[in-house]
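Chapter summary example: a protein plus manganese (II) ion.
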Amino acid sequence: MMNPATIEQMAAWLKDRDDFALLGHVYPDGDAAGSCLGLCHALRALGKRAVVCLPGGIPSLYADLPGADGVFATGDALPFEVRTAVAVDVSEYERLGDAGKALFDAAPQRAVIDHHSTNHGFGQLTLLDGAAASAGEIAVEVAEALGVKLSRDMATCLFVAISTDTGHFSYSNTRQETLAAASKCAAAGIDISGITARLYRTRTQARTLLLGLVLAGLHVSEDGRMAWAFLTEAMLEQAHALREDNEGIVNYLQEIEGVVFAVLAEERGSETKLSMRSAPTLDVAKHVAVPLGGGGHPCAAGATVKLPMEAAAQRALELARRALG
Ligand code: 5GP
Ligand code: MN
């Protein structure tokens, strides 16, 4: 991996710099949004100038996070010239998106803070902990190493990052350190019930309709080990749903009893975004996502392929079947 850094080295590097842009990945999730915002609060607490840039702006699910109203869509004009770009939760350079790559490349100082073990590093400094369940878990330690007090706002953002990437502390990536980081957030006085009600016990009508449309087209293999479904642009239109309303649908496929590999194939113009999940017995990143040009984690991975939905899903199913033996 390129230019690895410890928490302390990264904190010292950040302290020496200013005029930050925190960059999340394309189709930002709770970890990208929450970690970028949490680190932005931490850097501002040190008196630094910092902004968050997310491709497409802040997803509506995270729009009420503290500081979310100040998030820029990557590529938008910024209030100052960025001197330090930090990619957070971005597993590879390409996942910055075109505008993100341009912003990152234009910054004289560039760093990466991430938890995807497939990350090779693409800045002058990379803080990577492949065992961390989320970038948010690492960000709590970075804030501590910066000597910043975990404020309620900071903790709210980081808790959302930690919670969403672990399925609210239920996926196999959840470890002692995950709960310790969440505990520090709780100590800052966050509203856990309010945050989780918004994230997990509330969904828009559009999101609910989309879920129904996708699940109505469910496929399960004869042996019951693989499940797949399609999310078309027509479904998005019919449900009046947004792209981001896809989040979590693949879990319903993976949760079917007996299923060890699940894939949601989502139509994106002439390309297909594959969202994949697996039981711990199958490393879906290694055996399916990476061979398809994507990446991710052992039990949650994805890829974007230049194939129509059906062909893309079949490629993933073939690779999974081969790996399952
Ligand atoms: P999701 O299925 O929730 O979109 O993504 C699960 C995980 O797979 C993400 O945390 C991310 O690491 C990875 N992932 C998703 N889509 C892509 C993709 O198109 N390319 C790569 N390299 N990784 C992806
Ligand atoms: Mn993440």
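Key point: The chain has two domains: 7-200, 205-324.
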